[in-house]
Amino acid sequence: MDKDIRVDEIIYQEYLKALLAGKRMECRDIVQNLIDGSIDIKKLYSDLFQRSMYTVGELWENNKITVAHEHLATAITESLLNLAYPAIFASQHTGRKAIISCSVNEYHQVGGKMVADIFELNGWEGHFLGANTPAEDMARFIQEVNPDVVGLSLSILSNIDNRTFRIWIC
Ligand code: B12
User: Using a CB cutoff of 8 Å and minimum separation of 24, what contacts does 160-166 make?
Assistant: First the structure.
């Protein structure tokens, strides 16, 4: 793998501009070029996807963009994660299993999905249960799969739901 392939400032700004303008094909081309150049997937996730979504959050917080722009950027980002899948699922499996889930009421799902993908990249089975997962269902799935690791994803502190932990402990 060529470790020199990275998201430099020019690529990042070009991608951000396209993302904010909702230009899905331009974003896709940038990401596909990086993948074709064998970029480290962790760098792609952190230096392009995460960084741009944090910028989207700041712009939204400062009323520089609307909720519609944020939704569009999120939808584009989620669709582009799939471009990395051939690389992610090429890893030899270790037999280890991880479950990552958003807590009840937590709708920020991009970060948790990325975490599950990185487990896959490292040869784990990375189960991602998505947003707002009911605690009982999460607990049942954990019993079924018997994972080595369970990770909870939340961006809003008040979404730490005591009920989830009580059910896990039982
Ligand atoms: C997109 C977005 C949304 C979308 C999410 C849609 C979706 N499909 O995911 C929607 C519209 C639903 C949304 C809603 C809200 N949002 Co919002 N949102 C964002 C935004 C812009 C991007 C989130 C994102 O994708 N980030 C990129 C990912 C890659 O980063 P990440 O989540 O941090 O994940 C990384 C790490 O945290 C870590 N990680 C994440 N999970 C896990 C789990 C484990 C186990 C491990 C080890 C690591 C790990 O690894 C990830 C990869 O590095 C953020 C801005 C930001 N700074 O993130 C605001 C942001 C998170 N939202 C915010 C707010 C306030 C809200 C609302 C309350 C707004 C409202 N008034 O309705 C609601 C709350 C909804 C809810 N109950 O969950 C605030 C939160 C502030 C706070 N913490 O108090 C932020 C920071 C915006 C801001 N600047 O103010 N939002």
Answer: 160/103, 161/103, 161/104, 161/105, 161/135, 163/104, 163/135, 164/103, 164/104, 164/135, 164/138
